[in-house]
Each structure stands twice: as C-alpha cells, then as structure tokens.
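Category: protein sequence paired with discrete backbone structure
Discipline: computational structural biology
Format: plain text, a pair of labelled lines
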Amino acid sequence: MDEDRSEPVQRTLARGLALLVGIAVVIALGTFMVVKVLGLNEPSTGSGPAYTNSGPDNPLPSTALPEPHGDKSSAGDSHATFGDLGRDGSGGQRTGRKLRLSITPLEVSPGERINLTGTYGRHDNISLQVQRLEGGTWADFPTEADVSLGTFATYVETSRTGRNQFRVYDPENDVASNVVTVTVG
C-alpha cells in the first residue's frame, strides 16, 4: 500500500522540482538580458567614438516625455526631473566614463520645452547638473537629472534666443557629457 502512495508523491515532487528549475532558468535569462540591454556589463574604461545629437548610436526618442510640473524661475527658465529614458553621445572632463546626452527638438520657440535624455552606464542614484555654455564658460542651469539604472531624463525651458549649448555634469566624479545644441527663436 505504501508503494502505491509513494509513486504519485514522487511524481508530484519531480514535477514541482522541474517547475522550480524552469522558473530559475527564466529569471536567469531575464536578468542576463536586462544587464546586456542596459550596458551594465560594459567596462568603465576605453575610448569610444565621438557622438553627435543624433545617429544610429543616438536615436531620437519616439515619443514625447510626459509633461511634469516644474518650478518657474524669474529668468523664464524652468526645470523638472524624471525617471528612466534616454540615449545620447559621449565625452567628459575625465575620459573613460560614458556619460551621453541627447536633446529634442533641435529648434524651439522661446519658452518651449527642450527634452534632455541620456545614459550614464553602470551608474545609479547620481544627480547630474545641467549646464549651459554662457560666454565661453559652463554655467549651472537650474535643473538636475537623476540617474536611475544608468539612464536619465529631464527638460529645460529657456527664453534666451539663439544657439544654446547644453551638457550634463557629474560633479562627484568630474565627468561631463557631450555638448548638445538647440536653436531658440
């Protein structure tokens, strides 16, 4: 009698074990794919090609960012930070770090929203300072971008017409992104 009961129990245990192994394989493959896609397995050294505002290594976003509620400053510039979007170009104060920035659109009216998105491989929980080139030097813009799992997104608005050049800067590691340009006017 005990043998008759032990056979179904053994089959049930074997099925349960097979199911657990299957779940573990799916989790391992998913983790591997996420690490690969986010570039978290890339070494933090090396020199990459120079990037521009757009191209195959730097596609423009396919959808607009959601409209956040930002604070307006007296100069007519505003800012807000959000989560996890982005692709971008490369560069920096120190070489070997991959801090990349993209900008869309490339031409705006005064006060119109300018999206800044990017990646900062292998970084998380870091705050980047948005900077604008003013008179040949980089000035802090009243906006920060928070890096989450290697990506960041924010936006700026400015009434300063003409060609505006922006970058993001990591003061903690003395690393700056590539420069992106928008024409306001």
